[in-house]
Protein 1
Amino acid sequence: MTTRHYHGAARRSLDRFPGGDWLRRNKLTAGIIAGATGLVVVVAIVIAGSSGSGAARPTKAPPKAPATSGTRWVEGSANANLNAVNAGVIALTNATARHNASAATTAGTRLAVAATTALHGAMPPVDAAVYRAALGSLIRAGHDAAAGRLAAATPLVKDGIAGLTTVTSRANAPRVP
């Protein structure tokens, strides 16, 4: 069996296009021209993108509202205490939802310690009595959870969180002229 070679047909197809012989003879030059053209296109796109309109550039953030004593309290001295109390509440809630008594005991102890620390920390500029009562509820909830009385701790956690939410929202309320 003989193998047929179609070199002649391929050669004739290149001959149909003007300059086909030049391309065959100068493959390296044609490759350099194609690469240079691609490079020019990429550079043009990059330059066009970097000198675009102002819509492509990020805008400046609006100026911050003037700080009130409540925002300074929440963002400053009370921040670590409130975060610790929040972490204790979350841990206790998760342990209760999983019905894990040992994790609830640990979380209750953590909550009681965090709420006690917050109680001895900086007081909010508004509703300090509500804040103290809310932390007192969370301390009792932590002690109840640590003792295994999760049913008694649940309403105390809800009351404590409601009180903290009230205080922080009033402390962060914008001043109305």
Protein 2
Amino acid sequence: MLSIEVLQQIVANSELGQEWINDPLMSQDVWAFTDLGYSEEDCTINNKRNLYFNDISLSWLKLLIKLTIKASAREKHCLGTLKERVIYLKQFNNFLNEKGYTKPELLTDALLQEFIHKGNQKARRKVIAHAVKLWSEEQWLKLTFTCPKYKSNTPKIETIPEEVLAQIYQNFDLFPPPPIPLPIYEGELMHKLPFLRN
């Protein structure tokens, strides 16, 4: 079983975690973007000031979400991306509570896929894929996750009916002549347009 204490020790031994685990910000549930290195101007332009972690009930997930945000801020992701990650990871917290999965070792690929398919699939998939990859790279939590790939519909190929083509070919002489191509070589251009020489 992965307790919060064990997770904190794992984080403290990781490359990024060792500099963040004792940061006073980690014990707070309201973070100002300016505390993450963003300017007051960034906050004003984006109309965003704070991130809120107070309604995340799973302590191990709250720690991982905060670490994810610290990593995102370090990479200078935009404020909207940080806010989006908090929102969807909070939704993930609520989903896990509703399903009764309160321990990280109970998380499966099927459970992650179910979460993704219950809401804004594209946004949820993006956030979960980013978080799972970061957590795995930093060795905070290894989860099995296969990022679903969505196929876009192949456009339908439209054909021109033969009757229409026949009418076009019959009236081809009514179309205006094609434009005269411009000379390719500079020498030819200068020869045909002597007024450009000066």
